[in-house]
Amino acid sequence: MSGTQEPLVEVERLVTELDQADPPTLLDVRWRLIGPPGRDDYLAGHLPGAVFVDLDTALCGAPGAGGRHPLPDPAALQAALRAAGVRAGHPVVVYDGGDGLAASRAWWTLRWAGHRPVRLLHGGYPAWVAAGRPVSTDAPAPPPGDVVVRPGDLPVLDAGQAAALAAADDAVLLDVRAAPRYRGEVEPIDPVAGHVPGAANLPAGEYVGPDGRFLAADVLSERFAAAGVTEGRAVGAYCGSGVTAAQAVLALHLAGRTDAALYVGSWSNWVADPARPVASGSTPGR
Description:
This protein is α/β, with parallel strands linked by helices. It has helices at 11-18, 38-44, 55-59, 74-83, 101-112, 124-130, 159-167, 179-183, 217-226, 244-254, 266-270; strands at 8-9, 25-28, 51-52, 92-95, 118-121, 156-157, 171-175, 200-201, 234-238, 261-263.
């Protein structure tokens, strides 16, 4: 198994694997953009043996000019993953509260860090509970892992590269935020509304259902093709801060586009520099 070939795992398959002598390492990455911290959910109940890993402080760097969820420092990420028991070459399964956002960013981060055997529990914690599987309130203390973080295993875009991709005829930059944010009609989080000039809008609801489950691979291919992701065209994705766009990259992997790049800083990084141009309206606006 590789993280590229099999990014998702269903509950019943995970149950079987957890019964093995050397089961996958479970990471609970439940997170909310606004509201109580995910650790509260973890303490109230989690998959037996799962270790909580915080998206904001362990899987991302400190917010700033690089965006609200920039790349983590490799040494800090390695320390956090080792503390969670992640071992070199050993399978990891990540899960969240069901929308797939935090788990997708965790999947992407581990893949970017060079750890290939990582999968997302499809449907997250709600799918586990709905299947009648047991939960625990015990917080395990796993033996320290020995994973080595080697950044660069998945492609990353900075602002200049994102702009170049959006402007190129043989490429497409996907903005996966809701259409009103893309059009510049509303911006609830960042100080400037609009989108990167040349970017095409494909809201997340086009490739993932309301339950956080990804659409079938053939449907994903059709949706991405309609947005301009066709053979021979490079593709990148961004959102508000690089979390939802990581989910888009995972969806692109499921559709066969394992070369998809993530603009990690996303809109929160783009608007940090007032000299960068901003487009509005329903068209890319090159």
